[in-house]
Write a structure and sequence with these properties.
Layout: H1 5-76, H2 82-85
């Protein structure tokens, strides 16, 4: 059973269109995979930056607490040393 010429041409056009669409979609998937990898790498970077910032905050809070304790001791002894006089209290 042979198809009429107009149906054969239409089928060939449809097949060519589908092949072009497959190529286009394959390229889009490849682009999205690259973008996804980039976002994942950036997420790792920013998570590490956040962790480092938390470490700095903890260190500064500990230093601040220690300085406050030293100021309190100095005040109880009857005076604040010159090195603490210019800093503001907690």
């Amino acid at each position: 059973m042979d198809l009429p010429a107009y149906e054969t041409t239409s089928l060939l056009d449809i097949i060519q269109d589908l092949r072009r669409e497959i190529v286009s979609l394959s390229q889009e998937v490849a682009d999205l995979r690259r973008e996804n990898l980039q976002f994942r790498q950036e997420a790792v970077y920013w998570k590490s930056m956040y962790a480092a910032a938390l470490g700095r905050i903890a260190k500064l809070e500990a230093e601040n607490e220690q300085l406050g304790f030293q100021r309190l001791q100095a005040h109880r002894k009857g005076g604040i040393p010159a090195e603490y006089a210019s800093t503001s209290p907690n």
